[in-house]
Amino acid sequence: MLSEETRQRIDAAIASAPVVLFMKGDRRQPQCGFSATVVRILDELVPEYATVDVLADPEIRDGIKAYSSWPTIPQLYVKGEFLGGCDIVKELYGSGELHGKLGVAVPERRVPNLHVSDAAAVFLREAVARSDGKQVHLRIDRAFQNQAYLGPEEPGEIVAESNGVRILLDVMSAGRAEGLVIDHVETPGGHELRIDNPNAPAAVKPAEPSVRQIDVQELKRLLDAGAPIRLYDVRTPEERAQASIPGARLLDADAAAELEKLPRDTRLVFHCHHGGRSQQAAEHFRGIGFRDVSNVSGGIDAWSREIDPSVPRY
Amino acid sequence: MALRILGAQDDVGERLRAAIAGALPGAAVEVRAGGAGHFELRVVAEAFRGRSRLQQHQLVYGAIAPLMAGDAAPVHAIDQLVTEAPPS
């Protein structure tokens, strides 16, 4: 099942860097949620690590499962040692063991003082009551991008409580949350949670959303006007072969390497199928210093529906 | 240790149990069938003693790998795997 040649290729891949992640997709564009979770955790802890995209190589994809006696992707190797898949990596991260393996200082476990406004408390309590046992989580990444979501409790999470609402944070997020305020406000488009974090650098305070959302109408206007934007398609080459937006460039490894060298005031626009993966890509490039970054909400699917019906939907 | 197999009518569940028992002599195996191709396993085996949880899981996954290989594998996913050594 595992040929000698494949075994040697896997040996070489694992030896190629101190931290090697076998995953679906790559660091910028994980193609599965489990891989994306491990990427998010590694991004928190180490600046550099190697990834192997198993989707691009069926022999490695099958081979690594036999090699590690592990049936699923992703798989994380640190200094040649197999650490496990997504669930175990999450556990090791929550307990601080992963920090030790990676030679990163283990952060102090402290419960941050949060303030949940009355309006936000009502909203969150109702959301929890409807959610069938889920909890409110708040994730604050290195670039102080916030994500609040409902989900099951994860190992090692720290529980902060305010106004009768339990907020669960991983240890790194907790370290960035002291004094944070969560409010709930009405907006022209409906309502939203507004998170004001006094620890965030000024550039990402909520007054200036760090990744701008544009709809396909605005994208069309920008393209028609010949605006100096760079439009990137973050989907897979297979999806691109089915449907594409004229003027968009596939964000493959070459394009990404060129993009990283561009001046930081270049106007970047990202799109994918529906707007989720491209949001992640947009946040990545915002995080490395690009200041004018937009995500096409609705993605190419909205483009097909609203702008150009000749682009097939899939 | 009681041996309990839920959904024992399920041939795949029985093959999982047999594969694990074959690789880990004396193991007590519980198989719970979920959705199509999805299973939960609980394995108690002396072979786990002194091993990390990762190593324990590798022993089980190694034993059932043939049932998970290929596109038409009878076992699509192990949704939950609990391993422990018997009380000493």
Secondary structure elements and pairings:
The complex is a heterodimer of chains A (314) and B (88).
Chain A: H1 4-15, E1 19-23, H2 33-45, E2 50-53, H3 58-68, E3 75-78, E4 81-84, H4 86-95, H5 97-102, E5 115-116, H6 118-130, E6 135-140, E7 146-151, E8 158-162, E9 165-169, H7 171-174, E10 181-187, E11 190-196, E12 212-214, H8 216-224, E13 229-233, H9 237-242, E14 249-250, H10 253-260, E15 267-271, H11 276-287, E16 292-296, H12 299-306
Parallel strand pairs in A: 1-2, 5-10, 6-9, 12-16, 13-14, 13-15, 15-16
Antiparallel strand pairs in A: 1-3, 3-4, 6-7, 8-9, 10-11
Chain B: H1 11-23, E1 28-33, E2 38-44, H2 53-68, E3 77-84
Parallel strand pairs in B: 2-3
Antiparallel strand pairs in B: 1-2
Helix pairs in contact in B: 1-2
Condensed summary:
The complex is a heterodimer of chains A (314) and B (88). Chain A is α/β, with parallel strands linked by helices and 314 residues long. Chain A contains twelve helices and 16 strands.
Overview of the molecule:
The complex is a heterodimer of chains A (314) and B (88). Chain A is α/β, with parallel strands linked by helices and 314 residues long. Chain A has 3 domains: 99 residues, 3-Layer(aba) Sandwich (Glutaredoxin); 93 residues, HesB-like domain (Hypothetical Protein Aq_1857, Chain: A); 105 residues, Oxidized Rhodanese, domain 1. Chain A is built from 12 helices and 16 strands. A 5-stranded parallel β-sheet of chain A has the order 12-16-15-13-14. In chain A, a hairpin with a 2-residue loop joins strand 8 and strand 9. The radius of gyration of chain A is 21 Å and the shape is globular. Chain B is an alpha+beta fold and 88 residues long. Helices cover 33% and strands 24% of the residues of chain B. In chain B, strands 1-2-3 form a 3-stranded mixed β-sheet, covered by helices on one side. In chain B, strand 2, helix 2 and strand 3 form a beta-alpha-beta unit. The two termini of chain B are 13 Å apart. At the A-B interface, helix 3 and strand 4 of A face helix 2 of B.
